[in-house]
């Protein structure tokens, strides 16, 4: 089901679902939640499968831990990083999807101020007289989505277990040279 769902373009699925449930803020939240839940389930499932193959899972089952204890003590803490990363990186896509739906007239009703409505109504109607009506909502939308994506990338780098210890882009590695014997440093001894 998830493979068939992901075979269709996201905007077409959103437009189809919004045409079925109607306009409104609650409907946009519901549709975006359903779409992100289905597409995010694949990431969570693969993370759980990867964790269940570790040897400590076999050890926990061998000593008789209950399924609830295994889930809350071993699986859930290890999949929290991918879930947080998935949420932060998809938040920008949610903002763009809401703006697209509102711009096309399927999202939030016209009385509610959203960037999509600002670009759709006043932005197109008075673009020749006052171009800032379309320029500033577009600039703010772009900056917000870019900032959220950069934040998601930073969170991914900080939570990635392969980059622990400050070796990633956001960490620094300090090498201290200690004298080994009579003025010789460790680097000189290794040469």
Task: Give a description of the structure.
- The protein has nine helices and two strands.
- It is elongated, with a radius of gyration of 25 Å.
- It has a two-stranded antiparallel sheet.
- With 191 residues, the protein is an all-alpha fold.
- The model is unreliable at 186-191 (pLDDT under 50).
SSE map:
Layout: H1 2-7, H2 10-21, H3 25-52, H4 55-62, H5 67-104, H6 115-120, H7 122-125, H8 132-159, E1 179-181, E2 184-185, H9 186-190
Antiparallel strand pairs: 1-2
Rough shape? Answer: elongated
Which strand order does the major sheet show?
1-2
Query: What Rg do the Cα atoms give?
Result: 25 Å
The helix-strand sequence is HHHHHHHHEEH
Mean pLDDT: 80
Count of runs of 4 or more consecutive helical residues? 9
In brief, what are we looking at here?
This protein has 191 residues and is mostly helical. Helices cover 71% and strands 3% of the residues. Strands 1-2 form a two-stranded antiparallel sheet.
Task: Please give a handful of descriptors for the protein shown.
two-stranded antiparallel sheet, 191 residues, disordered C terminus, elongated, 71% helix, single chain, 9 helices, mainly alpha
């Amino acid at each position: 089901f998830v493979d068939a769902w992901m075979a269709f373009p996201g905007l077409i699925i959103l437009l189809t679902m919004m045409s079925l449930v109607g306009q409104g803020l609650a409907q946009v939240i519901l549709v975006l939640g359903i779409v992100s839940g289905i597409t995010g389930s694949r990431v969570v499932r693969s993370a759980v499968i990867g964790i269940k193959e570790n040897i400590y899972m076999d050890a926990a089952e061998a000593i008789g831990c209950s399924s609830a204890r295994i889930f809350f003590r071993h699986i859930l803490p290890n999949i929290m990083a991918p879930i947080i990363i998935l949420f932060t990186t998809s938040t920008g896509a949610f903002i763009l999807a809401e703006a697209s739906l509102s711009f096309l007239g399927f999202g939030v009703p016209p009385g509610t101020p959203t960037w999509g409505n600002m670009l759709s109504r006043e932005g197109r109607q008075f673009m020749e007289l006052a171009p800032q009506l379309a320029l500033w909502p577009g600039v703010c939308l772009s900056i917000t989505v870019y900032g959220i994506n950069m934040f998601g990338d930073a969170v991914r780098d900080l939570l990635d277990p392969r980059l622990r210890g400050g070796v990633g882009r956001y960490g620094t590695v300090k090498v201290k040279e200690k004298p080994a014997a009579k003025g010789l440093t460790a680097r000189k001894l290794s040469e």
